[in-house]
Every structure is written in structure tokens, then in C-alpha cells.
Amino acid sequence: MRNKRLPSFGTANLIKKSKETHPLTWRLNKEGNTIWLKEYIKKDGYLAIKRTLKELTPEEVIKQIKSSGLKGRGGAGFITGIKWSLTNKKNVKTFLLCNADEMEPNTYKDRLLLEQEPHLLIEGMIIAAYANNSNKGYIFIRGEYIDAINIINIAIKEARNKNFLGKNILKSDFSFDIFIHSGAGRYICGEETALINSLEGYRANPRNKPPFPGQIGVWGKPTVVNNVETLCNIPSIITNGVNWYHKLCLPGSEDNGTKLMGFSGKLKNPGLWELPMGITAMEIFEDYAFGMINGYKLKAWQPGGASTGILLPQHLKVQMCSNGILKLGTRIGTAILLAIDNTIKIVSFLKNIEKFFYRESCGWCSPCREGLPWIVNILKNLENNKGKYKDIDILIDLTRQLTNGKTFCGHGPGAAEPLISAIKYFRNEFDKLMV
Ligand SMILES: Cc1cc2nc3c(=O)[nH]c(=O)nc-3n(C[C@H](O)[C@H](O)[C@H](O)COP(=O)(O)O)c2cc1C
Ligand code: SF4
Questions:
Q1: Mind listing the domains of the chain with CATH numbers?
Q2: CA nearest ligand 1 atom 10, residue
Q3: Sheet containing 223-227: order of strands
Q4: Residue 164 near residue 46, CB atoms below 8 Å
Q5: Which protein residues are within 6 Å of ligand 1, measured from CB?
Q6: Fewer CB atoms inside 10 Å of the end CB: C or N, the chain?
Q7: Where is the NADH-ubiquinone oxidoreductase 51kDa subunit iron-sulphur binding domain (predicted)?
Q8: What is the pLDDT of residues 398-433, one digit of tens each?
Q9: Over the stretch 201-215, which tens digit does the pLDDT of each residue have?
């Protein structure tokens, strides 16, 4: 059965888009159809790889991506050019992995790019592979993304037929090909080292870092892992240059470029839009999502997926960029915002989120394996009016065991973040459920 299609771009369809202002989405149509090879080429597609292979050395590509300041769009926000420059590629072939696991609840940005702009991703991967001395790339894709898997498969065949993939690409001495690996539906597979284990056929536990994948990654070889959206940014940076890229964001933002941002919940116009880094959450709420549906009020919101903090309506004036959101003690994450309305009880909301994190824990380290089910039990008891006087102290203590450095990977701290902020801003809702 076909997956339900993503709603295409909501109000963004009404906004005039150009390749200068919307490098990720200017080619898309309002029907949400895939941009296949013919149309992609007609709309400047594969110009960046032609230029790269003709004019740039791998070192020059890395220099350009580094100067652009592009940060990874997978959630951690590491500077892409630095990651590439730290990858060991001296006399050794590397692997390129595209992380298309996208299982963060309330996140659907990579799906749009995979389904509608497959050649933009392929072109970004070819350039990344050229820069990092890689002949083989894998797209590790969420198993439920059936349409996306089919579409990418067809696009890869199209690209091979025109020699954008394969041996001696466009008569150069560079060869590269892409293979798809679909996941079996575990959130932890999105963590880059668990992804590598899974690709190798092992249980998806995260690996020790260091060594980082750039030193020892898949099958013991240096490996670059990048998110779908990160890779989709590469072609336009090569074509339009670093200065252009720097000008895309708004004043005050330390993140450059544009970003796919969305807003979901009981909103008049929920959707997904390509927006400049540094836009305020209030602008997205009012000008793109058109505010709450009549009869609902905004009670709280999350800036970028289930593993980011819960914020209040007065925080909407914050700029959507990592330095802006950091001031509120949380992360921009995937930049898909969620509106929590006045009918939702914070304790019940959290119970659902934490249940997800508990189920998705790989069980490798005890604070996460033991702590998350304990948290879920307490939240369930509170929800059923069976809370005890000490519950809030236990919850606070459990979140302290889940901070960075106390767990083996970022899953535990991510699970703690919404709970810590909920206790900070909605303590009264917990207190009144304790006897
Ligand atoms: C529990 C967990 C889940 C993650 N899931 C994803 C994911 O679905 N997609 C993704 O790109 N990055 C995910 N990440 C981040 C990756 O580990 C890694 O930082 C990212 O793929 C690097 O790409 P980027 O530098 O282009 O952002 C996850 C991290 C953690 C800790
Ligand atoms: S924090 Fe959780 S998901 Fe990460 S290694 Fe530990 S048990 Fe596994």
C-alpha cells in the first residue's frame, strides 16, 4: 500500500521561490510530484557536479564547504566542512553514508527531499564522495519510507544511465555508485555508529567514540556520515558560492543558509517550508502556520522533535538557529516545531514521548535501559492519579542520570530534555497529581 503523500508546501506555494532564495525547494511543484532527471537537468541539475569535476580538486571542495559554515542538519549541528577535513582519506578509500533514518517523532523533512528531490540528494552525495575519496555510498533509509525507497531506486538508475553514477563519471577519472539499505524501523539506527553497526549486519548498538567514523567507520574504513538535508545543501553552495550562502540567513543567526522548518499540531495551516536560518518561531507560527485553529490555545511548543525541550508561548520570539535556541537551554534539533495545545495534559504528553524513548532504547547502558521504563511508570501512575509525594524528586534524579556523559549515546539525554523542561515550566501539573 502506498504511504499517504506528504502535504506539499502549504503557504510556501504562494511565496515566490527562486534558486537564489530557496536552493532546496525552488524546483518543487505544488502537486508534490517527484522531480525526475529530465526536469532536474532542465532546472540546473548536475551543473554543480560538472563544475566540481572540471574545475575543483577535492581539497578545494572541502575548503568551500568549510567556508560556507554549513552545519549538519541531522540534529547535532556539526560543521560539515570540518567533519570532511577530519576524515582520514590519505591513501585510503572512504565510505559515504547518507543518514535517512528520520525516526524522530514529529519530523518529516528528509522524507520530502527523498520523495520529491532525489537527484538533488544524489548530486550532493557525488560531490561529497569526490571530496572525501569515496567510491561507494549508502543511503540508510527508514524502512517505512516505502515511496521514498522506490523513488530513490529509480533516480539512481536514471543517474547511472546518464553516467552521473558509475565508472569514470562524465569521462573523469572519478567513479562512484550509491546503494540503498533500508532499516528495520529502530530510532537508534539514526545514531551514526549504531547505523554503521546495522549496515554491517550487527545489532544496532552505538559504538565507542573515539574512534569517530571519520577514522574507523563501516567495515573498518574511514566513513563520512551526513544527513539527507545536509547533503542536499552541497550542490547550490558549489554553484552559487560561499558569499551567496552566507547572505541567505537572517541577521543574528550564527547558522548560515536556509533550513526546512515545519509546524504541526492544532494549527490552521500546518506544513513544511524552506526558511532562512534565524527566522523567529513567532513568524513561522503566525505567517506560515496561521496560528491555532479556533477554539484552541497554544500552551507550549517544541522546537525540533521529541528530544528537544518544551518551551512556552512567550518563547516564540526566539530566532530559529542554534545560537538562538541555545539561549533557552535547548536545541534547534530537526527544526520541525510542534504546537502543544490547551487540551493536552503535559504529564500525558510526556508519558507518550517517554514511552517512545523507552521502547527505542537499545539497552546498552543502564541509565537509559533502567531509567526510561522507571520514568514511564511514574508518569503513568501520575496520569492515573496514583502518584506519590516523592515522584517528582525521583523524576528529577532520574533525569540527572541521563545527562550527556552518563550514557553511551545521545538517546538518553534526548529523552531527558523534554522532561527536564516540562518540570521547569509545568511543575504545577505534576504537583497536583501527587498525593
Ligand atoms: C538517538 C539518535 C538518533 C538520531 N537519528 C538521526 C536521524 O534519524 N537522522 C540523522 O541525520 N541524524 C540522526 N542522529 C544524528 C547522527 O548521529 C549524526 O550526528 C548525523 O547523521 C550526522 O549528519 P550531519 O552532520 O549531516 O547532521 C541521531 C542521533 C541520535 C543520538
Ligand atoms: S543511551 Fe540508550 S540508546 Fe544510547 S547506548 Fe545507552 S541504552 Fe543504548
A1: 10-246 (3.40.50.11540), 258-341 (3.10.20.600), 346-431 (1.20.1440.230)
A2: 74
A3: 177-182, 134-141, 94-100, 223-227
A4: yes
A5: 72-76, 78, 99, 101-104, 187-188, 190-192, 225-227, 230, 409-411, 414
A6: N
A7: 347-392
A8: 999 999 889 999 999 999 999 999 999 999 999 998
A9: 999 999 999 999 999
